[in-house]
Automatic annotation (TrEMBL):
Any single Pfam family the record assigns to this protein: BPD_transp_1
Record-annotated membrane-spanning stretches: 12-42, 63-89, 121-139, 151-173, 194-219, 255-275
Topology versus the membrane: Multi-pass membrane protein
Gene Ontology terms: cellular component: plasma membrane
Endpoints of the signal sequence: none
Protein name: ABC transporter permease
Keyword Transport: yes
Cited PANTHER family: INNER MEMBRANE ABC TRANSPORTER PERMEASE PROTEIN YDCU-RELATED, INNER MEMBRANE ABC TRANSPORTER PERMEASE PROTEIN YDCU-RELATED-RELATED
Positions of the ABC transmembrane type-1 domain: 64-271
Amino acid sequence: MRSTTIGNSLSVPVFAAITALCIAPLVILFVYSFFSVNFVAIIKDPSFKNYIRIAGSSTYRWLIFKAFLSGAGIATVTAIIGYPVAWFIAKRVTVYKSALLTLLLVPLYTGDLVRIFAWRILLGAEGVLNSLLIWMGLVEKPISALLFSPLATHIVLAYNYLPFMVIGLWLAFEALDDRLLEAAQDLGAGSRSAFLRVTMPLTMPGLIAGSLMVFVMVVGDYLTPQLLGGASGITIISAINDLFGTAFDWPLGSAIAWTMLTILALFFALAAIVISRSTLGKALVGGEA
């Protein structure tokens, strides 16, 4: 009884902090999304005008679609790269597993700006890559498309968030019982059949978890498109930033933010349903495998 009371007492500051720092700002954003702006004054007359404006604006619809398209694309690329890497670390490395995982996370120890400017040095007109290509005689002049372009943005986004995909997949591979693969082979399954019927379904929760982490972080990334995207660096996140800054249209910015949150919540709900119906998901929630 006493331990329960102590636990409840210790949980109060945690719930208070979550409420004040996470839930309350979202509630304020939600309320503001129904207001409007008249020059520099916020008109507190609730309506759906901002949401109607978003739905009717081809610019906002395209920016939202582009954000989710980039998120899905980077999640796909990191999954293709990260799947064999995670398998190798989990199933083929024994002695230096911790060292490899630490090495994988080393880039995250530096700040976003450090990594972005390092890539600008690599991809710039007089950068390492262009200089190497010219020195090898493969090109006569620097390739301008390597920097300040969608290509540069997506290369760096994939580099930044690949570790999160690998970690999610690595955990799934660590939980994969090798005896299941041996049993499948004993029953006559080939390598491809065992992968599609055993390995892939059992590692699907890790793949979905890693994809969601990458997807959300790419959609919400602000610095990378701004510093590497050039003219293509305008994103829905930068639009929200401008609405809360120079444009002073907090209600419209709040409505766009809540639109993004709603779409992301739908993705998370769908992923939760898929994971909960998987074998590993049922085991995690205490259901029948």
